[in-house]
Amino acid sequence: DPFTYEDPNEAVREFAKEIDVSTVKIEEVIGAGEFGEVYKGRLKLPGKREIYVAIKTLKAGYVEKQRRDFLSEASIMGQFDHPNIIRLEGVVTKSRPVMIVTEFMENGALDSFLRKNDGQFTVIQLVGMLRGISAGMKYLSEMNYVHRDLAARNILVNSNLVCKVSDFGLSRYLQEDTSDPSYTSSLGGKIPVRWTAPEAIAYRKFTSASDVWSYGI
């Protein structure tokens, strides 16, 4: 669990690969996150072909806590290896801006993609998307992680209509040494109320079951 590390930078070093900034080419802005802008770009690692990537950046003027929170998502993503979980390519921490580099998903977020193509998909295609999301969430559960912010806006879609779970900023590790694995949020943290299970709203207690509720919504 990256949040148990006394030095968050150690967690990043353990779970996320450092990328040389010279291998990254930033191209166009494709969105904005909590910590800064998100770009489409290219990554050319030695001995590998050049690929398109998404690049999350940390805006200038950040404080250390913002840097820690930004990179904690990479520490979590770096532990996952599943076809329905967004793949972390690596991080850039030794130059500015600090970056999180992930695979690029051509069709973007599921919510806007479905709205833009309303009525264009067969039932079989839609069920295939749902199965992909549930497979990714099942994997997270098996890894003892609770996502806490599962919504169509946090599912990304590639050119083959494969759906992948992304945005692990609120994800937390569930303790194994208990009969009731759960994560209890401290007061004051933001909760996406429309997608969150009643017990999670009332008691700030999150489990794989509360992720199932969000999946149903």
TrEMBL record:
Pfam families to which the protein is assigned, alphabetical: EphA2_TM, PK_Tyr_Ser-Thr
Record-linked InterPro entries: Eph_TM, Ephrin_rcpt_TKs, Kinase-like_dom_sf, Prot_kinase_dom, Protein_kinase_ATP_BS, Ser-Thr/Tyr_kinase_cat_dom, Tyr_kinase_AS, Tyr_kinase_cat_dom
Gene Ontology cellular-component annotations: dendrite; plasma membrane
EC number(s) from the headed UniProt entry: 2.7.10.1
Keywords: ATP-binding, Kinase, Membrane, Nucleotide-binding, Receptor, Transferase, Transmembrane, Transmembrane helix, Tyrosine-protein kinase
A molecular function (GO) term: ATP binding
Membrane-topology annotation of the record: Single-pass type I membrane protein
Record's subcellular location: Membrane
Binding site for ATP: K56
Lipid metabolism found in the keyword field: no
Residues in Protein kinase domain copies: 24-217
SUPFAM superfamilies hit by this protein: Protein kinase-like (PK-like) (SSF56112)
Catalytic activity: L-tyrosyl-[protein] + ATP = O-phospho-L-tyrosyl-[protein] + ADP + H(+)
Top-level taxon of origin: Eukaryota
One Gene Ontology term from the biological process aspect of the record: axon guidance
PANTHER family attached to this UniProt entry: EPH RECEPTOR A5, EPHRIN TYPE-B RECEPTOR 1
Protein name as annotated: receptor protein-tyrosine kinase
Species in which this protein is naturally found: Nothobranchius furzeri (Turquoise killifish)
Gene, per the UniProt record: EPHB1
